[in-house]
Design brief:
single chain; alpha/beta; Glutamine Phosphoribosylpyrophosphate, subunit 1, domain 1; Rossmann fold; 3 domains; eight-stranded antiparallel beta sheet; 27 strands; 36% helix; binds 6-O-phosphono-alpha-D-glucopyranose
């Protein structure tokens, strides 16, 4: 994680960097810092949020047309002023910002200490800039060459930017494993971890690839790889509006993103699904559509909320395609010795497209002959590029750390992939296929309706906001939704919450139930409805407080539960797209009422580019 941003051009660099860092703060917010050339190479850094740094900098007269900044999610060394980036070299003529982890930093540090280097921070990043300095001195080479040589000896992941007091118009950047985008303006250049700090200035960008070094000097960009071969920059035009990355009148990004879901789900289906024409086209999966159709098993890898989307997708593929599916935490999968056969298909789900574990999992699977299909939200992201083919979710930028609209867009894409495959395989009848398309097309309107429950949910949130534990229960398609509801609450309100399959409750969690325990049931009318009703009764018999998400018009549960939240009816398979909405709102309101930082919850980051 960590966010990095840099600028060189005619403008004052500092405001561009501070604004950029605020946009990247979802990547980490333990500390922030900038480097500028103000007569000499100066570094300013501070523990805390970007605004804390900004307040400190506002008191000073700082002018520079070049600069770089960093917002940190701590890996090596606790969050404090010293460990904040940028870091100086020993002679203070170089400074570095770094996103990633240098795994062999300890041995490099020892070697450098033996040569007289002194380190101020506990970070791996400081070691890297000293290492570059050392190589430059020993080889009497240019800084770019020293960077290149250093990178050939580094183990780990990085996106770095380096500034030098001796080359006051030069930015050197490189990446391996952590993202870096270069924005090309008119006689100005931007560097950032994603395009959000860049988009208001230019939509022409170059995504740096792994093992590439970008040198921006004399108003020009040159790229080479770490083997010293010049590379031709591939310029892309981004299709992203500035409004999409601003709050647009909402108090928090998370609330904005929850309310965007009717639109984001529609955007996700746009041009792909038409019930009228009984058509489902996935432009991103063409060459490998046959591979998926003929696959004997499917492996889904993901982390966090994306993993929950994968669990729902398991039911889609089993039900519609009759295909065996395994859903794996990417972090576990990559460190086992997974059995992968030539022709197995792996679907990697990732909002950011940068999650290190998911990326490593697909690299492993790919090296063993699997076909990789990516389901990513961020266009041009590492996972999207490391996949053979895939489908973007097109949910627009998701900035709140707790994922909401990305989840429903992932479900939409995965549903479409499964349904299309089922059609090709002949495992679904034409009438069922059409029925599902019609139902999917109705989902955005039904989400809109579910969002009207906001006031009721805010009222319920107020009654439960001071509880210390919550249990979320659901069955079938609603079981992953129970997990997701619990995760949302944990992430942003710091209340302990667990999600369970409702029937498993009696094998353990039932012991937790007393009059203090709120139990959120997702009890919509589906094939396990009667069973869930029995589970509700089991909770009531132990005096638990039941909040039930039910299908509109449900009378039975109304008589048992303390609170019922009625959502529109839909097909069982599509219910997660609706039943998750009240759970997102419940966690949001509880977190706001507990005065938690909803968009930037403690210890979390949106894009986890470290393992
Ligand atoms: C982090 C985020 C979660 C997200 C997970 C996976 O933990 O805080 O919201 O679900 O990473 O991220 P991805 O970008 O791969 O979906």
């Amino acid at each position: 994680m960590c966010g990095i941003v840099a600028y060189v051009g005619e403008r004052e660099a500092l405001p561009v960097i501070i604004k950029g860092l605020k946009r990247l703060e979802y990547r980490g917010y333990d500390s922030a810092g900038v480097a500028l050339i103000n007569g000499e190479l100066q570094v300013f850094k501070k523990k805390g949020k970007v605004t804390d740094l900004e307040t400190q900098l506002n008191e000073q007269e700082l002018k520079s047309n070049i600069g770089m900044g960093h917002t940190r999610w701590a890996t090596h060394g606790e969050p404090n002023d010293t460990n904040a980036h940028p870091h100086y070299s020993l002679d203070k003529k170089l400074a570095i910002i770094h996103n990633g982890i240098i795994e062999n930093y300890a041995s490099l540090k020892q070697e450098l200490i033996s040569k007289g280097h002194e380190f101020i921070s506990e970070t791996d990043s400081e070691v890297l800039v000293h290492f570059i300095e050392d190589i430059k001195a020993n080889n009497n080479c240019t800084l770019v060459e020293a960077v290149r040589l250093a990178l050939t000896k580094i183990i780990g992941a990085y996106a770095i930017v380096i500034m030098s007091q001796d080359d006051t118009n030069t930015l050197i950047a490189a990446r391996k494993g952590s993202p870096l985008v270069i924005g090309l303006g008119k006689e100005e250049f931007f560097l950032a971890s994603d395009a959000t700090p860049i988009i208001e200035y230019t939509n022409e960008v170059v995504y740096l690839n792994d093992h590439e070094i970008a040198v921006i000097e004399n108003n020009g960009l040159k790229i080479k790889n770490t083997e010293d071969t010049p590379m031709t920059p591939y310029i892309q035009t981004l299709d992203m509006e500035l409004e999409a990355i601003e709050k647009g009148g909402y108090e928090h990004f998370m609330l904005k993103e929850i309310f965007e879901q009717p639109r984001s789900v529609l955007d996700c289906m746009r041009g792909r699904l038409s019930a009228t024409d009984a058509r489902l086209t996935l432009g991103g999966i063409r060459e490998y559509a046959g591979a998926l159709e003929n696959a004997e098993r499917l492996i889904i890898v993901a982390c966090g909320t994306s993993w929950h989307a994968g669990l729902v997708a398991e039911y889609f593929f089993e039900e519609f395609c009759r295909l065996p599916v395994e859903v794996e935490y990417a972090s576990e999968f990559r460190y086992r010795n997974p059995v992968i056969k030539e022709g197995d298909v792996v679907i990697a789900i990732s909002q950011s497209g940068e999650t290190a574990d998911t990326l490593a999992a697909i690299e492993l699977a790919r090296s063993r002959g699997a076909i990789i299909l990516g389901v990513c939200n961020v266009v041009g992201s590492s996972i999207a590029r490391a996949s053979h083919e895939g489908s973007y979710t097109h949910a627009g930028p998701e900035i709140g750390v707790a994922s909401t609209k990305a989840f429903t867009a992932q479900l939409t894409v995965l549903f479409m992939i499964a349904l299309r495959m089922a059609q090709r395989k002949g495992t679904i009848t034409e009438s069922k296929f059409r029925e599902m398309l019609v139902e999917m097309e109705n989902i955005p309107n039904k989400i809109e309706k579910a969002l009207k429950l906001n006031d009721q949910i805010e009222y319920i949130s107020d009654l439960f906001k001071d509880k210390s534990n919550f249990l979320y229960l659901g069955r079938g398609y609603n079981f992953p939704v129970a997990l997701e509801g619990a995760l949302k609450l944990k992430e942003i309100s710091y209340i302990h919450a667990e999600g369970y399959p409702a029937a498993e409750m009696k094998h353990g969690p039932i012991a937790l139930i007393d009059e203090e325990m709120p139990v959120v049931f997702i009890a919509t009318r589906d094939s396990s409805y009667e069973k869930v009703v029995s589970n509700i009764q089991e909770v009531k018999a132990r005096k638990g407080k039941v909040i039930a998400i039910v299908t509109e018009g449900d009378k039975l549960i109304n008589q048992m539960a303390e609170f019922v939240i009625e959502i529109p009816a839909t097909n069982e398979a599509l219910m997660p797209l609706l039943s998750v909405i009240p759970l997102q709102l419940l966690s949001y309101h509880i977190a706001v009422m507990r005065d938690c930082n909803v968009d930037q919850p403690r210890n979390l980051a949106k894009s986890v580019t470290v393992e």
